[in-house]
TrEMBL record:
<dbReference type="InterPro" id="IPR007349">
    <property type="entry name" value="DUF418"/>
</dbReference>
<protein>
    <submittedName>
        <fullName>DUF418 domain-containing protein</fullName>
    </submittedName>
</protein>
<feature type="transmembrane region" description="Helical">
    <location>
        <begin position="123"/>
        <end position="144"/>
    </location>
</feature>
<keyword id="KW-1133">Transmembrane helix</keyword>
<keyword id="KW-0472">Membrane</keyword>
<feature type="transmembrane region" description="Helical">
    <location>
        <begin position="205"/>
        <end position="229"/>
    </location>
</feature>
<feature type="domain" description="DUF418">
    <location>
        <begin position="223"/>
        <end position="383"/>
    </location>
</feature>
<feature type="transmembrane region" description="Helical">
    <location>
        <begin position="75"/>
        <end position="93"/>
    </location>
</feature>
<feature type="transmembrane region" description="Helical">
    <location>
        <begin position="282"/>
        <end position="304"/>
    </location>
</feature>
<keyword id="KW-0812">Transmembrane</keyword>
<feature type="transmembrane region" description="Helical">
    <location>
        <begin position="241"/>
        <end position="262"/>
    </location>
</feature>
<feature type="transmembrane region" description="Helical">
    <location>
        <begin position="346"/>
        <end position="365"/>
    </location>
</feature>
<dbReference type="Pfam" id="PF04235">
    <property type="entry name" value="DUF418"/>
</dbReference>
<feature type="transmembrane region" description="Helical">
    <location>
        <begin position="33"/>
        <end position="63"/>
    </location>
</feature>
<feature type="transmembrane region" description="Helical">
    <location>
        <begin position="316"/>
        <end position="334"/>
    </location>
</feature>
<feature type="transmembrane region" description="Helical">
    <location>
        <begin position="99"/>
        <end position="116"/>
    </location>
</feature>
<dbReference type="InterPro" id="IPR052529">
    <property type="entry name" value="Bact_Transport_Assoc"/>
</dbReference>
Length: 390
């Protein structure tokens, strides 16, 4: 459900609008950028981080069950191989913002670490995560200095600055092309564009985000084994750790957002904020949210709690199902809403998608053992048909 909020801007607007308000077609109707700030602080990177953390925990849970049945890591590798197939189909046929290919490839790397002890997994994860965050922070701060400060006016840096400014025009121009295709082109024209212009875009995402994805998967494995998700941790410590991480990380992230606001939400300030220091400040928020949600989940009873739990059990079907629905909501050949909604209206669409998830997931699981895509993935992994109906 949080992933929908994170992705809604690039379902309904050019991909550059994901981090840069200037990427919106028309006005985003966000005076002062406060909606951008709220999303930057509370949503961006945190929902993907939670998803990644839980994916790592899921890899470990799967392996424990596989080992108990005498299977090996090859079964998990086969499972991730099929996830890669799903991801590539999603990327080319439905939506360019796919994350499943990233998870499949990073999962294969993390699979080599499942036998490490908990402490080794945590230390290795933190070293890689912090190293990646510092690397990207330094790189994108250099871009910001060159493009938007007097530092870049040095004659000796003129050629480099020109290259940086040219690099900005490439994604902006491509976003304009994709916007035109979404509004006026057919589904097949969009697929053809991805095949011709972005056939290796998923590998670019791998390089950009693997520095975060691999260590968070490792942390998810370690925290699962340490008892975060099954009540083996001291609940009082978990509560303090959760709120401490969430609040400290949120305040640090807010300071970055306010700096971007003071700079006028320019292209390179938003790029620096997204790809650089926020990677450091969101880590305690991700861990804090995981701790607090793990405490809350066992008591999530009643109408809403049970429906949220059901939506989570069908996360794979809901993730791909959302892309399928959004294709019809925003494509020019369907409801034709691409580029026509401002930021607030896009959030309304996201909340409607929540309502759909909550409405269908629990009734489905009352009748069937798995979500439809969870069932298909399981059958492909084991190479046999499992009963679907209860």
């Amino acid at each position: 459900m949080g992933i929908v909020l994170a992705n809604i801007a690039i379902f309904g607007q050019p991909i550059t609008a994901a981090m840069w308000p200037g990427g919106f077609i028309g006005a985003d109707n966000d005076p002062g950028g406060w909606l951008w700030i709220a999303q930057f602080v509370l949503i961006d990177g945190k929902m993907r981080g939670l998803f990644t953390l839980l994916f790592g925990a899921g890899v470990m849970l799967f392996m424990e069950k596989a080992w108990a049945r005498g299977a090996t890591r090859w079964l998990q590798a086969r499972r991730l191989g099929w996830l890669l197939v799903f991801g590539l189909l999603h990327y080319f046929l439905l939506w360019q913002g796919d994350i499943l290919t990233l998870y499949a490839l990073c999962g294969l790397i993390v699979l080599a670490c499942v036998r490490w002890d908990v402490q080794t997994q945590i230390v290795a994860a933190l070293i890689v995560y912090v190293a990646g965050a510092l690397l990207w922070t330094a790189l994108f701060y250099y871009f910001y200095l060159l493009a938007e400060t007097p530092f870049g006016e040095n004659p000796m840096l003129a050629e480099t600055r020109a290259e940086i400014m040219t690099a900005k025009t490439v994604p902006v121009a491509d976003a304009a092309t994709e916007a035109a295709l979404m509004r006026d082109g057919s589904w097949s024209a969009n697929v053809a564009h991805r095949l011709s212009e972005h056939r290796f875009g998923w590998l670019t995402v791998l390089w950009q985000v693997a520095w975060e994805t691999i260590p968070l998967m490792l942390l998810g494995m370690a925290l699962y084994r340490a008892g975060l998700f099954d009540g083996r941790m001291d609940p009082r410590k978990q509560w303090r750790w959760g709120w401490g991480g969430l609040l400290a990380g949120a305040l640090a992230t807010l300071s970055i957002a306010l700096w971007v606001q003071a700079k006028g939400f320019t292209y390179f300030t938003t790029m620096f904020a997204f790809m650089g220091p926020s990677m450091l400040t969101r880590l305690p928020m991700i861990l804090g949210l995981a701790a607090l949600l793990a405490l809350w989940a066992p008591g999530a009873k009643g109408w809403l709690g049970e429906r949220i739990a059901a939506a989570g059990r069908m996360a794979f079907s809901n993730y791909l199902g959302t892309s399928f629905v959004m294709l019809f909501v925003f494509s020019g050949w369907a409801l034709d809403l691409f580029g026509r909604l401002d930021r607030g209206q896009l959030y309304f669409v996201a909340l409607l998608s929540w309502a759909v998830m909550l409405a269908w997931s629990r009734p489905w699981l009352a009748r069937f053992r798995y979500g439809p895509l969870e069932w298909l993935w399981r059958c492909l992994t084991y190479g046999r048909l499992f009963p679907l109906c209860r």
